[in-house]
Design a protein that fits this description.
This protein is α+β, with helices and mostly antiparallel strands. Helix content is about 55%, strand content about 10%. The longest helix is centred in the last third of the chain and has 25 residues.
Amino acid sequence: MASDQLLLTIVLYLCEQLCVGGRFVGAERRSRDLVFAFHERCETTSNLDKLASLLFEAADMLGFRYAACGAHVDPASPPVGAFVWHNYPDEWIERWKRRHYHRLDPVLRHAETVKDAFSWDDPAFLAPLSERQRRILNEARMFRLARGYTIPLSHDTYFPASCSFVSESGDLDPHALTIARRIMAPLYSRALLLAQNCAAPSNERLSRRERECIKLKSEGADDCEIAVALNISVSTVRRHIEQAKHRLAAKSREHAIALAIQTRQVA
């Protein structure tokens, strides 16, 4: 715990020192130092709950009241190997689960279409929202979840994911946001590894065709391209992929790819 507190003290110190005499001084070097220190701490953490605590404490030290990080899945029944962390108000989470907002959440959906971090009042984020998505944002404001900043963390062979930081005061300090972006890469990478290692995939082996379909899918081929490559029908490709999902106890195609790689059935 002492090392955790020391690291968080460094975070606070860097936030305070990033701006000196009204000028942005040494930001790149200081951010780089922080990422290195944070990366070392993450690498020594072997428990997902402890990593989550580290995230929430760091968010608090950076001036954010709330944080959420993890896969874009149903938090009521997350797939094997997926993790969802948050310290949002319980009442909001219960409403979010009950109304199945994970299917339509505007922040999650937008994070799946962009690579760069974005604020929740960015016109590029707000403009394409449907009326229902705008209602979700308005409901979130009732629980003081209005001024947020989201960092996409999508993984090519796993679930789409992101991390959001929310300021209760309404202010989003640009220096704190810079640090938040930098520390999320090592933290998420470590959490993803731990989550996959903790998963208990099925011992069932894939058939040759199932492996071939999953491998081509992992390389970005669509069903039609796989059918042409293997000289089989598109419906047969889909059947093989569904059978692979069943054997691996996967919740989605992306999950099946991740589990096939994890169990070394696909290189």
